[in-house]
Amino acid sequence: MPAPVRGRTRSGGTPPVTDKPIVWQHDATFVLAATGSAVGLGNIWRFPYVLAEHGGGAFLLLYLLMVAVMCVPLMLAEAAVGRAGRGSPMASIKAVAERAGTFPHWRWVGALGILTGFVILGFYSVVGGWSMAYSWYALTGAAQQTDVAAAQQQFASLTGGSLLAEGAWLLAFVAACGLIIGAGIVKGIERSIKVMMPALFVLLLFLVVNSLVVGDAAAASAYLFSFDFSKLGWDAVLAAMGQAFFSLSLGMGALMMYGAYMPETLSLRRAVLLVATLDTSVAVLSGLAIFPIVFAMGMDPGSGGPSLVFVTMTLVFGKLPLGWLVAVAFFFLLLLAAVSSAISLMEPVVAFITESTRLRQLRESAQGLRREGTLAVSLSVAVVALFCAHYGGFFDLLDQLSANYMLPTGGLLVAVFVGFYATKPVEESIPSLPEGAWRTAWLLLLRYLVPLGILAIFLGGLLG
Length: 464
Ligand code: TRP
Fold this sequence. Notes:
Elements lengths: L28 H10 L2 H13 L3 H29 L3 H12 L6 H33 L8 H14 L1 H20 L2 H30 L2 H9 L8 H14 L6 H7 L7 H29 L9 H14 L3 H34 L13 H21 L1 H30 L1 H6 L8 H27 L1
The structure holds tryptophan (TRP).
The site of tryptophan has 16 residues, from helix 1, helix 2, helix 10 and helix 14.
């Protein structure tokens, strides 16, 4: 990594630090990395069954509405704060607040985000570990089951049996993420994303085509897309919002962080629209990769969740022609999706440590303690994840707390901050947002619909 450039004032005195911000080397990296963050376990096992639970096609419409009117404006706001502030969520918000001449205390919204990222990582790493374990099982042929009890036993002995097995896989998962993050923004994140994302799309495409050819596409689309408006209650609205926030990686600063590394010249508006479209498409495509073969093999998709992906699918692969190949593709897809999401949760935490350990006057530590920070974060995440693995209740608590409360709260605060307190400096980092109708719509949504919508959904949840 090049040494930061240090400037000198003409009049002498203390030279100001002018270390140039680190930016991605390639134009496509922001879109790839943000899509990598968005596309994750949330798309592949959560979306299909949440959709089916809440009325199929009717829920899909609701979800699309949430993405378009609540999430896209917020994504733009988040990424723009990052590009304007060029630091961890906390530093970016502080810098933008200073420029706007408003309270520096807004930076605590960034701190909340960093904490949320840490909390999500805690339980996400557990499922990441399962994905890694099953990728290995798939390679060795052990992810093709023919007996229901044996398939259930396999999952139970990974998750409930010995903490040793589950703990080892979880540690391996966290270590993989830590190695990427520790290698740096360009050499670690950018380089790995460039490999992981194309691979992810190739695997997904293969799985969808295969599933539509050998599977029962008609039964799957009846399950996924039938309109059942009777199931569309208030809890469906809450579920649609929670799912949209979680799936688009909103509300904790992941997009702010990746926006901070985005070159000035690229269109943020186009990038954000592309990421939202890709993420939503992957969610629907995952349903099409899973359900046609589930139905064709005479399986019951049941309540979905972990058991769908880690038990039912192994039984499907046991019966399917080319089962080994499909199993390998499926679990590696899951693993790639999990790793590329987890690094976006880890980077804000590590960036925060890196910048707070950057001793500005000492040249040798101008880069901050990124490696040491990564090690500390990885170890702490592993401890939390081990707790989650051991105590199922703690896993669920962190899951619910972060998705249903911390993310929407973060989103709400960012909307108010950008909408009312720091519109100008944030807008300046979105030159691609044309004046006129687009800008007006964005501001109106951000100022009123997003905060009021989140509050209404919170209240509805409390009352309901
Ligand atoms: N979006 C990812 C998924 O669908 C999870 C994720 C990654 C995330 N980064 C995030 C969720 C930031 C919330 C906030 O699995």
